[in-house]
Amino acid sequence: MMMIMWISVMLLSETYPTHSKVVHQPDSVMIVSVGDNVTLRCFILMDHSDPITWYKQTSGHQPQAVAMVQKLAKTPHFFDNFESSRFSIDTDTEKCNLKISNVTSSDEAMYYCGWRKYETYFAGGTYLAFEGEHNHRYESKVSLLQHPVSEPVQSGDTVTLRCSVLYEHSTTNISMFWFRSDSGESVPEILYTHNHSNQCEPDSTRNCTFKLSKNISSQMDTGTYYCAVVTCRKILFGNGTKINMVKPVDPLVIILGVLLGICVVVITAQAILSFKKERYYNSKEKSLQDTEKEHPSSQDHDAVTLSYAALHFKEGNNKRVRRKGQTPQDSVYSQINNPSVTDHTVTEYRRV
């Protein structure tokens, strides 16, 4: 609710108020009825001798000076078109209030209290609004759709904000406002004003879109951007577009990320190749072992298979005379060959 009040304060202004440390307006919105008496408050925050001026600004018009008062002056000076019978200034060392008696519908506007040094510094302003049943009747006939809802940007980017106005009946009395609200600021900042409906791009007979292009050059341009429509004394608000500034990616981070990705790919490839290589060697070794079990080697086979040959020679008649009692003897030659071993021959000679 407090945000709505601050928005209402800024909607009917085309100026860019500078918030002064000298003057302060505590009332952002004051709602009155026709014929009431109202006091618009302005507090003086520091001792000074410079003039204080009250300004009135209605939608689509330049600000008008209402009255000016100096610290040492006893009587304020009222400017043209403002009757001193209805307007008065209540001032002392701590305040400079503007009083309006018997208010009329023409008094509905934004009122600023300004302190003039070398230039004029404004307080936040007070919006004087009127109660009326026509506002409730009009509420259901017009609606706003603001997009995008959120937009991340980098420094130097340009964003285009869009605000679509949907209405049941054609109307030419539309004033569109754009403003920015920062969480660190107490009062929204007016950015741009469309005072005429011909600045709207018609999408259909009952729909038109207002656009605002904004260059985001620094963190000061971030925040929530709102659009608002003022027509037939009714203020309608958009849902807002939040602009967030994101830091650009450091090229070093990109390079390190690419190198890290390459390292991961290389390590993964090496792991896969090592696994396949080990699996291949294990499979080959197992195949050789199976082959040896099924077909023993020729060396082992030859070691078992030996050739044995024996020759038996019977001695013939020997001229020598046998001694008495000796029996004839036979000579037996035997040989064992191992074909698998070169020159490995065992020869046995026995006399039988």
UniProtKB/TrEMBL annotation:
Spell out the InterPro entries in the cross-references. Ig-like_dom (IPR007110), Ig-like_dom_sf (IPR036179), Ig-like_fold (IPR013783), Ig_sub (IPR003599), Ig_sub2 (IPR003598), Ig_V-set (IPR013106), TCR_complex_component (IPR052051)
What biological-process GO terms show up in the record?
immune system process; response to bacterium
Q: Which Pfam families match?
A: V-set
Q: Where is this region: Disordered?
A: 319-338
* Main localization, broad class: membrane
**Signal peptide as annotated in the record:** 1-20
Q: Where is the composition biased (Polar residues)?
A: 326-338
- From the record, give the transmembrane residue ranges: 252-275
Annotated Gene Ontology cellular components are:
plasma membrane
Report keywords, A-Z: Cell membrane, Disulfide bond, Glycoprotein, Immunity, Membrane, Signal, Transmembrane, Transmembrane helix
Location of the Ig-like domain = 17-113, 140-229
Give its localization. Cell membrane
Highest taxon, organism lineage: Eukaryota
Query: What is this protein identified as?
Result: Novel immune-type receptor 13
